[in-house]
Specification:
CATH class of the largest domain: Alpha Beta
Strand order of the largest sheet: 3-4-5-6
Distance between the termini: 41 Å
Order of helices and strands: EEHEEHEHEHHHHHEHEEEHEEHH
Strand content: 15-25%
Shape: globular
Structural class: alpha+beta
Largest sheet: 4 strands, mixed
Number of domains: 3
Number of strands: 12
CATH superfamily of the largest domain: Chloramphenicol acetyltransferase-like domain
Number of helices: 12
Radius of gyration: 25 Å
Amino acid sequence: MREPNWLPCSQSVTGRLKELVISRGRNLHPEDMETDVAAAHPALRPGCGAVFGTDDDDVLVVLQEVRAGTSVGQYPHLTRRIRGALARTYGVRAHAVVLLPPGAIPKTSSGKVQRFAAKRRFLLDELPYLARSTAGAETDSTLAAKTAEASAGGFGAAHDRARADWLAEALAAHLGDLLGTDDIDVRDAPASLGVESLVAVRLQHELEDLLGVRLPPSAVLRAPSLDALARKALDAPAHTAVATAAGGPRLTQTQRALWFIQRTAPRSYAYNITRAFTLTADIDRLTRALNAVIARHASLRLKVREVEGEPVAEVRPDAAVVPDVVNASSWTEAAVERWIRRRATTPFDLEHDWLIRAGILLRGDTQILVLTLHHLVCDVSSLSVLLAGLAEEYARDAHPRDTPVPAAPHSALPVELEAAALTRADALHAFWRAELTGELPVLALPSATH
C-alpha cells in the first residue's frame, strides 16, 4: 500500500468539515461565529451557543443561552446585538435568532457543544426558547407602503421635516418586517441591526425608487441612524440610471465574461442551468406563477445585444414565458431523460431568447417541470429564490380575490449587488490595513519547558 505523500511541516486547522456553514459560496466556521455572538453582550453566555445552517441555501440559525436573571425587556436588544455582530464581522444575516435559558444547549460530557443535536431539537421545535426572532426574507413589506401608512397618504405634499420623520418611521417599520423584529428605533444604525449587503441593496433601491434619487452604494450600511439615512435620501440628487453609452444597464465583469464565451462558442450549452421537478399542479396557475416571478426579478427579463463590439443589456418589461407542454403519458423513462437532456443542452441566443425557459411533461396524474436558465442571469443560490417565489405565487393564485397581490419588491440587478460587494471589500481592506499597521505583537505560546 502506498504511503500518503504528506508535505513536511505543513498543518492546517479547518474545524469539522460537516459543520461548516456555507453562505453564498463562502465557508464560515461556526466556532468563530459562536465566539463573536457571545461577545456581543455581557448577558450572553460564552461557550453556550450553536450556529448552523439548515438544508435550505443560506439559511443561518443562531441558538444562544442568556445568563440567569436577564430581564425579558432585554431580549429584543440582545437579538439585535447578535444580528449586528454577524452582519458586521461576516456579512451574513441570521434567519432565526433563538434565546435560550442556561443549560438548554446540548453538550457532550466534556462540555463541547453538540451542534447536530441542537439543530435537530430546533427543527423539531423541542427547545425551551425564551425568545425567537425570524427574519422575513419573503415578506411582502415594501418601503413605499410603509411610507404611505406612516404619512396617511400625505407624504408627497408635506414639508421637509415631516417627510424626513415619516420616512424614518417607515424605514424602521420596513426593516422590522425584513429582520423579524418590532423593536427598531429611528436612532438605530442599520449596521447595528444586522442589516447585511443584500438587505442594504434592497433598501437602498427602494429608497431610490420612492424618491427618484441616486444614493452612494454604501449609504445604508454607513448611515449612523435611520433618521440620518432618511434625511440623506431626501437631500440626494435626482436619479440617473446606471447605463452604458448605448443606454442599457451595465453588466458585471462576470456577466461580460459569460457573454464573451457565448459569443465565441454560440452553440455551447456549458453555462445552462437545468433542474427538473416532479409535481402535481394546475398548468395555467403554474404558468401565471412563473411569469409573476419573472416580473419580480429584472435579471430574468434580461437580453444582451452587441453594439460596436460591446455587450449591452436590456431589461424588457414584456417578458412572458410560455412553457412547452408535452403529453408524455406513454413515454418510457429513457424517453423522458432524452427529452430533458435535449432541453438542457439547447444553447441560448442571448440577444433574442429569454434567458429562462420552461417545459412541462404530462405523466398521468403528475407533471415534470423542467426549468433551464443561462448562468448569466442565475446561479444555484438565486435558483432557490426563484423556486421559493414560484411556490409563493402559485399558492397566492389559488385565491386571487381573497389575497391581494402586493407590489413586487425591488430586485437588484447583478451589477448593483456587485457594487455592494465591492463596497464591503473596500471597507474590509481599510480595516485590516489599520489593524496591521505598525509592529505586530509577539505571540507568546506555552512550550514544554515553561
